[in-house]
User: Which sequence fits this backbone?
DNA sequence: ATGTTAAAAGAGTCTTTTGTCTTAATATGA
DNA sequence: TCATATTAAGACAAAAGACTCTTTTAACAT
């Protein structure tokens, strides 16, 4: 019972990690993997999704790695979640019913639809630069 | 990416179904399974958890089945979720970090901790009787 | 050219969740 | 007693998710 999948957690943490570095150079995935304690090969595939969706850019060869494709203030956590998760929590039902919507409500709709949009806009308002600053300060953590 | 597991969805729907019947008789699991389109044996095991946790009571043999163990106004969805899910979404982190808490916050804490408790109290305030009335009316649905 | 560093791609394994099937155990009624 | 209806329990199978390993491709340095 987790809001987002492991893949998504890893993707978010990696993106925040890259943003927290501040410099615009390419960070090797191996470094991210080591510092965050995430399996290298697994993380690689997750980050591939993010580059394919235009959120990150990659560069091969020596001194290559991964970098933000846009400015940190222009990338929201919502975009990252959407790029990694195939099904969208923000448009699915708590009860898992199909054809979910105001016209065919299930008993939890009144409550859940409100929470759902609240969480969605919350994720939409969180940008990498807002969240990564306190990480760089050492105030907030990205690991256990 | 779902807030709750399939098992939990099924458990909630079944509990609402039983509550919507109104009468205090035992409902055979087979009936619930058929009407809600849930695998009989799978549902049986989920409902066993609920009876073991004192939310439902069961009776074997002819005209046996499952019934609410307490009054419908006294059973909240939160209790049902807690009985079925082993890990508790309301105390885990979006980023999956351990030792989650105000003293060791991750970057999303400020946002997530608030949503988390909001959802928890929402589930706590939803009781079977409140939600099942409109189902009995035919206003709200429990199936696709 | 050749070797080294790094991401990309894809096959394969392990684990958890979901679902099926079979066999008990319990209650009822003829 | 015996047949029937029902939950309980547990073994098993299938699917999805999480993770590992190997090979390929790209970039750079010498
Ligand atoms: S009606 Fe609302 S609560 Fe029910 S399935 Fe649709 S979105 Fe979810
Ligand atoms: S500090 Fe908040 S956001 Fe971070 S892991 Fe704990 S609950 Fe989650």
Assistant:
């Amino acid at each position: 019972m987790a809001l987002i999948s492991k893949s998504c957690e890893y993707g978010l943490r990696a993106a925040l990690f890259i943003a927290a570095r501040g410099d615009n150079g390419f960070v090797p995935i191996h470094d991210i993997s080591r510092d965050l304690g995430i399996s290298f090969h697994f993380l690689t595939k997750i980050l591939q999704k993010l580059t394919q969706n235009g959120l990150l850019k990659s560069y091969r060869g020596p001194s290559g790695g991964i970098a933000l494709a846009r400015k940190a203030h222009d990338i929201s956590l919502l975009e990252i979640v959407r790029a990694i998760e195939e099904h969208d929590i923000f448009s699915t039902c708590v009860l898992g019913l199909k054809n979910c919507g105001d016209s065919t409500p299930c008993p939890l709709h009144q409550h859940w639809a409100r929470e759902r949009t609240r969480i969605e806009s919350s994720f939409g308002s969180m940008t990498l630069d807002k969240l990564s600053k306190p990480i760089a300060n050492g105030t907030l953590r990205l690991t256990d």
About this structure: Chain B touches chain A through 45 residues (CB under 8 Å). Residues 20 and 135 of chain B are 6 Å apart (CA to CA). The helical segments of chain B are 6-21, 29-36, 40-52, 77-84, 109-125, 128-137. Strands of chain B lie at 56-59, 65-68.
